[in-house]
Input
Amino acid sequence: MRDCSKTCGRRLSDSNPVLRTAYALGLVLSVFASPASAACGMTKIAELPVTMRGLKPFVPVTINGVDESLSVSSGSAVSTLTQQTAAALKLPKLRSVRPVGIGGVAYDSQLTAVRTLTLSNQVLHDVEFVITSQPGAGAIGQNLLGMADTEYDLANGALRLFDAHQCSGSNMAYWTTSPDYSVLTIDWQKDRNPHTRADAQVNGVPIRVSFSTGTPRSSLSLNAAKRIGLDVEGPGARYVGMVRGVGPNLVKAWIVPVASFKIGKEEVRNTQLRVVDEAGPGLNEDMMIGADFFLSHRVFVANSQHQLYFTYNGGPVFQLDEPAAAF
Output
């Protein structure tokens, strides 16, 4: 337990294209036994270097032979490319789609597919992306990240993909011998529900959270804040401006004091949370756990177990000192 009043702000089969490519190339990079089970083995499929640009993680990829740097967006159902990137790569527009997130529906989005996508030493074929009007080059989402067990070690500059063998019931926080790691049950990965969701508590009230490395700063929805009893106009609360997400609309944001935020074994007392008046319509979460949390924690999403493991790195759990416009 920490007082932050001053400092805090599917089990894969061989038919899976990532594994098929990895095995064909002999990419059995690392195998280890889990502390909980000698039979548990982890095959590292790939390790990508992560570069943080502010609170956004980026990894190098190669698309149709062209080197690019894409952000890592674990909260996105599919991977995306911007209109400029798609035009430069001369990608076909296959059909219209409507991604939904903070700020509403992203209109004028098109589905495309790239012939080859290289992640680390792996070459994947016919990978789908959504073309959006967002800034930057694009992002890799759950259609790639959700195909394996994924470790987000952003503080140490790494994103790792693993295949788990006989690890049911095993501890996947392999980097620590301490019993202080946390384990959360997460939703099953489904095509129509690929997001990584779990339970947490604010002031003792249960909430649903979604883990999104593409969201720089963690945020609680205004509806959830009202249900918990938080007042964005009450003592200690302050309005911090407008924020923009995947959609075209700007939404209001506040910083509010909370007595307790608890997730897994970890409880942060006397802290503050960012509240936005929309946290993803149709996504069914009360709170987006953003890149600020991933930087202060080492996170292992064990899709093979439907569990998420994390340990605390140190520093502020949530970043609250940046302007809301950079949300």
